[in-house]
# Entry
Amino acid sequence: MSRRLFCEINPFCYAISVKKERFIRRIKDAFGGEKFAKGTSDKELPCIISSHSSPLMRRLHGVDASLQENKITNIKLACEKVNGTVVYPGQTFSYWKTVGNPTAKRGYKEGLIISKGRLSSGIGGGMCQMGNLIHYLVLNSPLEVTELHHHSDALFPDDRRRVPFGTGTSIFYNYIDYRFKNTTDQPVQLLLWTEDEELCGELRSERETPYRYKLIEEGHCFKKEGGDYYRISEVYRSVIDKNTGKEIRRELILKNHSKVMYDHSLIPKEQIKNDN
# Structure
């Protein structure tokens, strides 16, 4: 029998562990020398580097619909904090330093969260969708991701998915963060808003960038390993010269091997690969 971690003993020990991790993060940020983006601007930068949108309401098997409704409230509150953020050259964008602590006192509600590989609910839940959208914008830009926590499991079947599986990010205040650094020679700006039941986002700059980007998922399938199914694929990023249309480079950014946590009967049979 494996020994339980301190945080797994009981809820009190878990709360202590969370406070410890949050304190450690604050100390590291205070003395780490990182320059974080703080300013916002109502004036939009003229050039769109990348843009994307995702549906706020999804058909999630076995999930209380009220948690999704609360998620929309949470995302709208977070959008107010992020929208218009300007990240200058050399600065780092931190999701949690920008949004702040999502507490009930600040208007956040119970939403869907992922805890220990299982679905649960908690104040401020559902904001991973916003982190996912920001990450997608950054992947389609020359900016450098400096902190990313992938979801390890496949928790839901696809519903109107518009991006390759696995390209999202986990976030949990404040020590499981999403961060990127502006390594270019010009400021960039994040715009985030909700419109017609969609979460919308743009990444903008002062001048046009020379490249465009494309995410490509290859080898997608489901495989049975023992008594479990896993979602398998590789995700590549193609960097393309805007003037010539030629691919400059192609890089592997993710290998998916994610355990399917939902009802296996919902897996499309034509996507199950047998090695026999």
